[in-house]
User: Fold these one by one.
Assistant:
Number 1:
Amino acid sequence: MASARQQLAAGRCDLAGPVASARQQLAAVNEAREAGLPLCRQAIRAASSAIRAIHRLEDDRAEALIAECEKAVRGAQEVLSPHPAVAFAGFLHDAEKEYAEAVLTRALVAGAELPGPERIGVGVPAWLNGLAEAASELRRHLLDGLRRGQTDEAERLLERMEDVYEALVGVDFPDAVTGGLRRSADALRAVLERTRSDVTTTVMQLRLQAALERAAPDTAPGGPDRI
C-alpha cells in the first residue's frame, strides 16, 4: 500500500515553483499598470487643458501644460516599457496620442513645422491619430478667428486642415497597424467639410457686404445727394 501511494505521489505534478514564478511576474505587471495608469490619465488631462489654452491664446499656460503632459507620458513609458502586454493595452497609446495632439495643435495654429513622432517621442500610430485630431481642433480656432473678422487667418488654417487630411488618407494600412487611423481621418473629413462651408459662406458674405458699401451713394452731409 505504501509503495502504491509513493508511486502516485511520484506521478503528480509539482506546480508550486512555476505558479509562484507566474504570480511574481503578474505582480510586477500589475504594479507597472497601477503606476502607469494614473500617469496616463494625468497626461490626458494636461493635454486637454493645453489645447483649451491654445484656443484662448494663453501661450505661456499652454507651454507649461504641454511640459506637464510630456513629463507624465515619459513616466508612463518608463514604467510600462518592460511589460509590453500592458504597454500595448491601449491607455499608453491614448496618452501619447493626446500629447501629440496638443503639440501638433500648437504647431498648426502657429504655422510652425510639425515635429515627427521620433522628435516628440511617441509611437507612429499615436502621432498619426494625434495629427488627425489636431487638425480637427483647428475648426474651433478658425471659427474664433472668423468672429474677429480674421478671414485671412481662417483661410490659412483651412489650408492646413486640408493638407493634413490629404496626407493622412494616403496612409492606407489596416486599423490594427495604424491604431484606428481610418476612423480619425473620416472624422476629420466631416469636420473639414463643415469648416470649408463656414469659411466660404463667411468670406462671400463679407465680399458682398463690401461690394454693397462701395456701390451705395454718398449720403453724408454735403455729399452729392444732399438737396
Number 2:
Amino acid sequence: MAIVKYTNVSVYSSEVEGFKDNQSVTVDTETGKIIGVNDDVQAVDEVVDMDGKYMTPGIMNAHTHITSIPTYWWRDGEEDRHSNSREFNTMYAVKNMEDMINHGVTYIRNVGAPYDIDVEIREMQKKGFVKGPRVMASGQAFSITGGHGSDGGYEVDGVDEVIKGVRTALKNGVDNIKMMVTGGVLKNGETPDDIQFNMDEVKAAVREAHHKNKTVAAHVQGAEGVKEAVEAGVDTVEHAFNIDDETIAMMKEHGTTVVPTLNAMYAIYQYGEGTVPDWARKKVIVNIKKHFASIKKAAAAGIPIAMGTDAGTPYNGFESESAYEMQLYVDKADMTPAQAIDSATFNCARAMHVDNEFGSIEVGKYADFIVMNDNPVEDIKVFQRDNDVYQNGVRVHASRVVADVKEDKRVTEAAI
C-alpha cells in the first residue's frame, strides 16, 4: 500500500469544464481514495508520469444482469440461455464481472439476479475474491404473478404482498428494489404498454425502500407505465420507450432519472433476426424509433440520463457494450460526447445515491478511473478502445498495445 501521485495527465471535470490539462491526482492505495488533485502533496511513495494522457472517472452502469448470458438461442420454441442452477449463474456472474472491469466499468447497479446472487457477489468482491466493478445489488426483481420477469424473481400481488416482499429483500441485504411495472419485449403474451403493478403497489414498494434509505428502479416502457412509476416516486425509470411532454413535466417535478438501455433494443434489431423469436423482434421494430425519440426528448429537456445497458439481454454483453451505449446516446439521442460521459459518471452516481464517493475525480472519492491516449470529448468511441483501467488507485487492466484500437464494429444506421 502506498501514496501514489499520477502527474502530467488531463483530468475530466464535467460537461461544462471538459478536461483540465497538466493535472496531478494523488491517491492512497490503502484506502483506495483520492487525497489530492493538482495538489502540493510531497510525501509520496511513487510518482507516475502519465505522458499527457486523458483521465476520466470509471464507467458506471446503472442497469446490468450479471448472471445472464448475452449470447442467445432457443430450443423447441423455448428460451435456452438460462439455467436454474445456482452454480451456473454464479460462474457466469464471476466471468461477466471480470469482463466489465477490463472494459472500464468500475461500478454497476445490478437490477435482477436469481437466488440474490448479486448480493453474494457484492460481498465476495469486497473481500477481493471476485475481480470486477463494485456492485449495488437488487437481488431478485419483483413482478406480478406471471408478469414480466416472473420466472426469476419475487411474484407478489397486492399491497400487502409487496410490503412483505420488499421487507424480505431488504432483510436479505439488497441496496435497491427493482419493480417490473409494465410488460416488455422478451416475454410472449404481453406488450411494453401493459401496466402490471398498479399505483398503490408501486407506491408501497417506494415507501418501504425509502424508509430504509434504499432506491427503487422501475422497469417501465409504455407511456402510461412511465407516468405511473414517476408519480409513485421511483428513483429511476428503466427503458422508457414513450416519453411525452406531460411525462417530462412530471419527471422534473419528482426529480426522476431515466436509464435508457438503448442497446438492449438495438442489439436485437441488428443481430436478432433468425435467433430471437419473431414476436420479440416485432415488438422491437414497433418501438425502437419512438424509444430513440423519447430519450432524445428527455435529454434535450434536461432530464438526468444515467447510463445503463441492460447487459445480459440478447447480443448485449459485458465488454465494450457500456461504451457503445454511450455512443448510441450521441448517435441516436443527440447528446454531446461530454453529456454521454456525464451519463456514465456523475449522473449514475447521483441516481444511485453514491455521488459522495463515486462518479468524479475529486478529493475524498474512490480512485476509480480510465486512462486513454485520446480525448473522448472529441470522439466518444475512444471509450471502446483497450484502455488502462484503475480501481482504488491501482491499475487493474493494462491496455495490451498502445495503438491497439478496438472500437465496437457495429454500425448505427442513420435510418433508425
Number 3:
Amino acid sequence: MEKRVVITGIGAITPIGKNVKETWQGILDQKCGIDNITLFDTSTFKTKFAGEVKNYNPQDYFDLKQSKRLDRSSQFAIIAAKEAFEDSGINAENTDFNRIGVFVSSGIAGLTTIQEQCFTCFEKGHNRISPMFIPMTIANMPAGNIAIELGAKGESISIVSACASSTHAIGEAFRNIRDGFEDVIIAGGTEASICEIGIAGFENMKALTNETTDKNRASIPFDKQRSGFVMGEGAGILILEELEHAQKRGAKIYAEIVGYGATSDAYHITSPSPDGEGASRAMVRAMESANIKPEDVDYINAHGTSTHLNDLCETMAIKKAFGESANKVMVSSTKGNIGHLLGAAGGVEAIFCTKALETGKVPPTINYKEKDEECDLDIVPNEVRDADLKLVMSNSLGFGGHNASIILKKFTL
C-alpha cells in the first residue's frame, strides 16, 4: 500500500533572505534580490548582475576551521537543512535516525573551490593543492555534510541533472517514502557558482542577460524584452515525511506531495525541444501520478528562466499538457526575485509552492512590462494574488534535456 508523503519542515537561504521567513516576505513584497556582483571583479566581464546571498559571513554559522573545510555550496546546504530540521521538530525521541535519508542535489557543487584550487596549482604548484580539495568539491558532499551534521543515517544521494537537480531530488524522495523505504527524507538543493569561471561559462554561451544598467530589468521571465537569465545562489531544503509518522509525533504539516513526473527531451545539450514536448510529458506524468486532471491544478511555479527559448518552450509545454485549462491556470516565475539558482532552483521554488498553499498567496512574476504574444499565459504580473489554492505544480528543466515536475496539495485528512 502506497504511503502518503507530507512536508513538515522548510529551510532556505536566498538572495532575498537568510531564512524562509525573510525569503517569503521578500516574495510578498515583490523584492528583487538581483544586484551588482560583489564576489569578484567584473570589470572585464559583460555580465554585471547576479543574485548573491547578501551580507553573508560563514562565521555567523560555522567556526573558522569548519568554514574553511566547507565549500560555499555545502555551507548553504547545511544552513537551510538545519533550519528545516529544527522547523520539523524531529529528534531522537520521536524518530529513528536510521530511517532519515538525505536527497540533496547541486548542479555542480564546489565550482568556486575548483576555481580557487586551479589558480593555486598553476601559480604555486601542485604540492600546494589543499588536501580538502576533493571532499570540498564533489557534488555529493552537500548531502554528505548534511547527513553528518544532523546524524541522518538512511539513504543519502545526490542527483545531478543541471537545473532540474533539486526537483528530481524531491521527486525521488517522495517515491522513496511513498514506497516505504524511509520515514523521513531531507530533500532539496544548493548552489554557489557565482565566480569568474561560472559566469564566464554561461556568458560565453550567451545564456546570461545582456542587461547591465537596470537590475530590475535583468531577470524578467516571459517579458518580451528578456535577454537571458541571471545566476543566483543559495539553498532550499524540505523535510518530507510519511504521514502516519508525522501524525504520531504531532508534527505541523505544511502540505502534501502527491505527484512527480520526469522525462528527457533527447534533443540537445542546452536547448529545450522546440515544441516543449519533453517538459509537457513530465507535467502529464506528474498529473497522472497524482491522479488529477489539468483543470484541478490552480497554480504552476514555472521554470521561467528569462531566456527567450526557455520561456517560449515552457509556455508551449504548458499548453500541450493542460489543453483548454492552460488559459485558466496561474503561472508565474519567481526567478525575477532571486535569479536562477541552477541546481538549487527547484528546492527553493518548492518552498514557494508550499508557502503559497499555506497562505493562499500566489507569487507574482515581478518587473514585468512588455507582453510577449508567444508567452500569453496568466503569468500573475507584478502583484501578489489571493487565491484558494488546493493543487500546485513546480517545474524544473535542465541542460541535457532533463525535465521534472512535482505536484503539491493543500493537506487534508
